[in-house]
């Protein structure tokens, strides 16, 4: 079973095997955590992403970490929130599951996630945190998983779900 911890901070500072990027389907870089990861990794990350020819929502693809203190970056485009009836919950769960699969395939022991889809993509925080925690806890692999909350509201939402369902 994957073990789970929560920290507040900047995911680009995470030291371990892998970080997950809340990407877009073009893998062309953008704002939010994606922009921060690209800035910290350097321009080679953009070149590596372009060679992957995009990624469907809920899937996950891997690049090296370049200047980041991790070996690999796992890029996963989360669903854009519409009203919840466009398979957003299933697609968000897929993001976590497929990212964890890529981590295992790439022999990772530690992987950090941001809160996928809850920024620019507008997924409501509380249901998104529930899905994230459930998907990670149910994933059967010896992985150390860190959730990195950038802001206090995200930290509090994750903490609430983690204590309730511990
Ligand atoms: N470390 C950890 N979390 C962060 C960081 C950071 N350095 N910076 C922001 N966050 P978002 P999305 C948090 O918008 O909703 C991009 O343009 C942020 O506070 O980054 O999945 C992509 O290219 C929020 O809690 O991702 C896509 O087009 C969380 O990361 C689109 O945004 C996710 O917010 C993806 O939108």
UniProtKB/TrEMBL annotation:
Record-annotated Macro domain positions: 1-166
Superkingdom: Bacteria
Gene3D superfamilies xrefs: Leucine Aminopeptidase, subunit E, domain 1
InterPro entries in the cross-refs: Macro_dom, Macro_dom-like
SUPFAM superfamilies according to UniProt: Macro domain-like
This protein's name: Macro domain protein
């Amino acid at each position: 079973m994957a073990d789970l911890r929560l920290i507040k901070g900047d995911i680009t500072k995470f030291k371990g095997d892998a970080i997950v990027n809340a990407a877009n389907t073009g893998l062309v870089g953008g704002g939010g955590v994606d922009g921060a990861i690209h800035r910290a990794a350097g321009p080679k990350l953009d070149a590596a992403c372009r060679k992957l020819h995009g990624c469907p929502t809920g899937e996950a693809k891997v690049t090296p970490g370049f200047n980041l203190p991790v070996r690999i970056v796992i890029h996963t485009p989360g669903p854009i929130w519409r009203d919840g009836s466009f398979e957003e919950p299933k697609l968000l769960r897929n993001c976590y599951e497929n990212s964890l699969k890529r981590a295992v395939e790439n022999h990772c022991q530690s992987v950090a996630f941001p809160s996928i889809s809850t920024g620019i993509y507008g997924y409501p925080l509380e249901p998104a945190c529930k899905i994230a925690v459930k998907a990670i806890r149910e994933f059967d692999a010896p992985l150390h998983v860190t959730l990195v909350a950038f802001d206090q509201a995200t930290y509090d939402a994750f903490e609430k779900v983690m204590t309730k369902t511990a």
